[in-house]
Design a protein that fits this description.
Largest sheet: 7 strands, mixed, barrel
Strand order of the largest sheet: 1-3-4-5-9-10-12
Pfam family, one: DUF2071
CATH class: Mainly Beta
Shape: globular
Protein name: DUF2071 domain-containing protein
Distance between the termini: 24 Å
Organism: Actinoplanes sandaracinus
CATH architecture: Beta Barrel
InterPro entries: ADC_dom_sf, DUF2071
Helix content: 10-25%
Length: about 230
C-alpha cells in the first residue's frame, strides 16, 4: 500500500515491562530498558491510501486514525512495533485491515480539526460493548533543530517494521518512509481510555510529545517470521 500520514502527534509514556509483556503474542518481547518500555498513542490523518499504481478515492482514502502501540523485539532480535489497537473512521479500511492482516482495527466516530497552531483530535468507538474514546488538543511549535534530537526521539518515531499474528503465525510487515520532520508540541487537553481498553493501567505523568506535518509511506507485503 501507499499511504500518507499527515498532522501526526506522538504521545508516549513509560510502562513497566510486567504491564506490557503479558499482552504480547508469543515470539515478541518488550524492547525494554531498565525494566521500562514505551507505549505510544498516535492520532493523525491518514491520506492518499491506495495500492501502487492505482489512484486513491477521495472519501475512502482520507480519514482520521489513532493507534496505540508499543515497541518490541522479534524472535530474530529485530526491532519493531506491536499495535494494541488502531481506531479508524472508515469501515471499509477497518474490515480490509482486519481480514488481510488481522490488525486490531476498530471502527470509530472521529474528527480532526486545526485552528492555527492548535490541533484537536477526537474519537469514540462504535458498536463495542466496552467502548473507548479520547480527546486530545495539541499546540505545535517550531521544528526541532537536528542537533537537539536525541536517540530517544529517533527511536520513538523511526520504526520500520510491524508485527501481527495471522492464522496463528507471527507475521512481519516492513514500512518505508523518509525521516520525520519533528516539531515541538504542547498538550493542552488529554482525556483517553484507549490504554484501559487495551488492558493497560492508566499512564503516569505527562507524555513525551512530538508533532510532525507528516510523511509519505510504502507498506510492504506480510512475511511469516520463522
Amino acid at each position: 500500500m501507499i499511504q500518507r500520514w499527515r498532522r501526526m502527534t506522538f504521545l508516549h509514556w513509560r510502562y513497566p515491562v510486567e504491564a506490557v509483556g503479558p499482552l504480547l503474542p508469543a515470539g515478541l518481547t518488550p524492547d525494554a530498558e531498565d525494566g521500562q518500555v514505551w507505549v505510544g498513542m498516535l492520532p493523525f490523518l491518514m491520506d492518499e491510501v491506495r495500492p501502487p499504481w492505482v489512484p486513491g478515492l477521495p472519501w475512502l482514502s482520507t480519514f482520521p486514525e489513532t493507534n496505540l502501540r508499543t515497541y518490541v523485539r522479534g524472535p530474530d532480535g529485530g526491532a519493531g512495533i506491536f499495535f494494541f489497537s488502531l481506531d479508524a473512521a472508515r469501515l471499509p479500511a477497518v474490515v480490509a485491515a482486519r481480514v488481510g492482516l488481522n490488525l486490531p482495527y476498530r471502527w470509530s466516530r472521529m474528527s480532526l480539526r486545526t485552528d492555527g497552531d492548535v490541533t484537536e483530535y477526537r474519537g469514540n468507538r462504535l458498536y463495542e460493548p466496552r467502548g473507548a474514546g479520547y480527546r486530545v488538543r495539541v499546540r505545535t511549535g517550531e521544528a526541532f533543530p537536528i542537533a537537539e534530537l536525541g536517540q530517544i526521539d529517533h527511536y520513538l518515531t523511526t520504526q520500520y517494521r510491524l508485527y501481527t499474528v495471522v492464522g496463528g503465525r507471527l507475521v512481519s510487515v516492513d514500512v518505508w518512509h523518509p525521516p520525520w520532520v519533528l516539531h515541538r508540541a504542547e498538550v493542552l487537553d488529554l482525556r483517553q481510555d484507549l490504554t484501559a481498553a487495551a488492558g493497560l493501567p492508566a499512564p503516569h505523568g505527562s507524555p513525551l510529545v512530538h508533532s510532525s506535518p507528516g510523511v509519505r509511506t510504502r507498506i510492504g507485503l506480510p512475511r511469516v517470521v520463522r
